[in-house]
Specification:
Number of strands: 0
Strand content: under 5%
Largest sheet: none
CATH topology: 434 Repressor (Amino-terminal Domain)
CATH architecture: Orthogonal Bundle
CATH class: Mainly Alpha
Number of helices: 5
Structural class: mainly alpha
């Protein structure tokens, strides 16, 4: 019987071995953030145009924030979006 070197490892270990962990993790975090913001906007009946105006930014910047694939968004932009929908941004290192 041959030994499988991946037995006992998890998907995170696989992604690390392939050099993909950080990228996949950033996309996963961004997807959650974008979904949460979109849900709050829908709940509060805030359009994208209204949201951008309240954030003092452009509609295209808001579209980048809400795009789950675009991870290059500043903390300031995320904080302003959270504030507009009445939420707080919490970031921690674990």
């Amino acid at each position: 019987m041959t030994h499988n070197p991946h037995t006992g490892s998890d998907f995170d270990d696989f992604l690390r071995e392939e050099g993909l962990y950080e990228e996949c993790n950033a996309i996963a975090i961004k997807r959650v953030l974008a979904r949460q913001l979109a849900e709050e906007m829908k709940l509060k009946k805030i359009t994208k145009t209204e949201m951008a105006t309240k954030m003092q930014t452009s509609r295209s910047q808001l579209d980048r924030l809400l795009d789950p694939e675009k991870t290059g968004v500043s903390l300031d932009t995320i904080q302003r979006a959270a504030s507009v929908v009445g939420r707080q941004l919490r970031i921690e290192l674990i």
